[in-house]
Amino acid sequence: MDMQLTTACFLSIRYIPLLKETFKFPQSLGILGGKPGTSTYIAGVQEDRALYLDPHDVQMAVDIAPDNLEADTSSYHCSVVRDLALEQIDPSLAIGFYCRDKDDFDDFCSRASELAEKANGAPLFTVMQSVQPSKQMYKQDDGLCCCSGSSMANEDYDLDASGEAGEEWQIL
């Protein structure tokens, strides 16, 4: 999920505890982001520091042959752990999650809901169960209106055998 967590140059401190918490999710793949103007892969956190890899570091290609089990794999590993203060992270970032099956996704949704409850009105993201199509907002001369999608063709809905809309999840 990509997000913009403030309009300023640095991350709002209200999001730091929430970002740290996402690394506890078993589905976490880390964060793509970093310092303003520099992309990094944030693989973890320790206290108030982000531990990251720089994808721009050039490594020598490793020649791996089936008959050579002694290939030099030293370039697969970092010799230095780089870190960055969490409050210095660029607010434009993407958080990665991987759910291997429905049970894993349900666990992710449960954890995401708990995280949203801890957010004091400013969640990183929310996950909600929806059985209705998304409502589109549009501006009309006398104010803001919404379109419920009733003019949409049936093939636009996820219908089950009874003709009812099936369960859908939306990550916001």
UniProtKB/TrEMBL annotation:
Keywords per UniProt: Autophagy, Cytoplasm, Hydrolase, Protease, Protein transport, Thiol protease, Transport
Pfam families named among the record's database cross-references: Peptidase_C54
Domain Peptidase C54 catalytic: 13-111
Cited InterPro entries: Papain-like_cys_pep_sf, Peptidase_C54, Peptidase_C54_cat
Top-level taxon of the source organism: Eukaryota
One Gene Ontology MF term: protein-phosphatidylethanolamide deconjugating activity
UniProt subcellular location: Cytoplasm
Catalytic reaction list: [protein]-C-terminal L-amino acid-glycyl-phosphatidylethanolamide + H2O = [protein]-C-terminal L-amino acid-glycine + a 1,2-diacyl-sn-glycero-3-phosphoethanolamine
Primary localisation category: cytoplasm
Annotated EC: 3.4.22.-
One Gene Ontology term, aspect cellular component: cytoplasm
BP GO terms, sorted: autophagy; protein transport; proteolysis
The keyword Cell inner membrane belongs to this UniProt entry's keyword annotation: no
Role: Cysteine protease that plays a key role in autophagy by mediating both proteolytic activation and delipidation of ATG8 family proteins. The protease activity is required for proteolytic activation of ATG8 family proteins: cleaves the C-terminal amino acid of ATG8 proteins to reveal a C-terminal glycine. Exposure of the glycine at the C-terminus is essential for ATG8 proteins conjugation to phosphatidylethanolamine (PE) and insertion to membranes, which is necessary for autophagy. In addition to the protease activity, also mediates delipidation of PE-conjugated ATG8 proteins.
Family, per entry: Belongs to the peptidase C54 family.
Complex and partners: Interacts with ATG8.
Protein name (database record): Cysteine protease
Species of origin: Zea mays (Maize)
